[in-house]
From TrEMBL:
Belongs to the trans-sulfuration enzymes family. GO terms for cellular component: cytoplasm. SUPFAM superfamilies: PLP-dependent transferases (SSF53383). This is Methionine gamma-lyase. Keywords: Pyridoxal phosphate. Its cofactor is pyridoxal 5'-phosphate. It comes from Rhynchospora breviuscula.
Amino acid sequence: MAEVINFANFSLSNAKKQAPKVADEGEDNQSPMPLSLTTKRFREVDPAAALASARHEFGEHGGVNMSIEASATFTVMEAETMRRLFAGELGPDRDYFIYSRHFNPTVLNLGRQMAALEGTEAAYCTASGMSAITAVLLQLVGAGGHIVASQCLYGGTHALMSRFLVRACGITTTFVNIDNIDEVRSAIRAGETNVLYVETMSNPTLVVADIPALAAVAREKGVKLVVDNTFTPMVVSPARLGADVVVHSVSKFISGGADIIAGAICGPASLVNSMMDLQEGALMLTGPTMNAKVAFEISERLPHLALRMKEHSTCAMAYATSMKRLGLKVIYPGLPDHPHHSLLSSIGNPEYGYGGMLCLDMGTEERANKLMQHLQNVTQFGLMAVSLGYYETLMSCSGSSTSSEMPPEERAKAGISPGLIRMSVGYSGTLEQRWGQFERALALVQQLPKNLNPEVFLIFNGSALG
């Protein structure tokens, strides 16, 4: 049996290893269960304030930055200690480590920061966002189980659920319109369904999940609500709204540099402990281990995540408003006519806006590609690339890229049109500079060689930025 870790209280550095006490006969060797940090306690907490309240980890010699524990394996001073480690009698809560695929001090420190950020009891950081999602589903669902999920998900997640898990584990998924709570409720099968899975803001259509309502259904039906919060860190805190587990592709907004692949699982300590069980843990046994150097890099970027998310949201709102004024078909939850504007306003954390993602529907893939080529190669507005959360604007035509794993009929059902451009709005440059670049690229797409459309003429010569 693996040790039960008290994630809230143990220190990961500057701790002196004391000779382990050997329990008297009949004495319980197991560590105490973690003190619960409940959803209610965190519901009204600013995620930046919660992160700032997490214990600061100092370096080995008193450095203001924590040390990087780059060791793959760890020594013990007595042979009996190793036996006790593998028996689950000793562990990281007493500053004892076995092997970095199990627990690593630097990675655990980042996990504590992620738990503070999301308002969960514990967190564990992984090698990628997909490994985090896969491990959670394997642990919570198991062979032959059933998932109810949003019909609009990141293409890789959709393929995992609709193809891989079916073939590998016999796990099936029913995809539903999460806007229809009755449809969600009726899709959950008593005794079969284990997980209700949604994205806070769907990739790429920006449908906002009513997490409090979905959490109520999950509790009613006895299933776990798992929420992918990759698009909206800081903007929304799903666990504070009732979600059981929150997953992230840390590679995106949290990293912010488009240079790291990483993931995170935030949830109850009991879940993290079960996933690290030496005999049955999905994380322990499949091994999607985060490198300690990556954990250090991300930990150094978390303190300015709040500032970055506010800038992403501010720029996205400005561009979306200006695109709307030009008569373009823009999708952004910050716009009053977005069907979930009021919902996101009610569940979002104050001061963080509506996120850094927007969609522009150009109707056809040809027009979408033409606009993106001008935006990148002529006016330097942004870059044609997948992923998100970078300081430069990243653009992709979702139907032929990040959602291409979905069959055409599934894309249509999810509302992903052939000409839908997903934009991760960056914050480099000034708003005026970037908007001027967008206007010039749009004019090149819309201009008529002989008789220039008056509206396009205005785009050439005026600034619509509001």
